[in-house]
Amino acid sequence: PVSVAFIQGFGLKKGAIASSVAHDSHNVVVVGADDFSMVAAVNLIMENKGGLAIADTESQNILPLPIAGLMSNLEGKTVGTLYAGLETKARKLGASLKSPFMSLSFMALLVIPKLKIGDQGLFDGEKFEFTPLFE
Length: 135
Fold this sequence. Notes:
Largest sheet: 4 strands, antiparallel
Number of strands: 7
Order of helices and strands: EEHEEHHEEE
Number of helices: 3
Structural class: alpha+beta
Oligomer: single chain
Strand content: 15-25%
Strand order of the largest sheet: 2-1-3-4
Helix content: 25-40%
Low-confidence stretches: none
Radius of gyration: 14 Å
Mean pLDDT: 89
């Protein structure tokens, strides 16, 4: 199933970021400024069997996480370099958060208060129930 919701505060002006690290279910989660970029970022994750991805109309980059979509089989220094590059690119696309990929991973953690996105839809962590996107 696919769940869709609106989010504010990421600051992206263009492009999209996506991740297979999405607590607790570790489904793929994506936030973006346009459909093309969001689809491209998710497709990168699918092609690499997991990862952190960023895409816009000009380029696509990924830190592959092929071990359960959570871990890399690359050397630590390589992982660090790829991760830093993704965060730099996210800032160039307008991301205003200190750790955009870390923040994205927690948008799917339903037990943290306020609104979160799960595989069954939008979840209100304060009322502890699913809620409609539109009233």
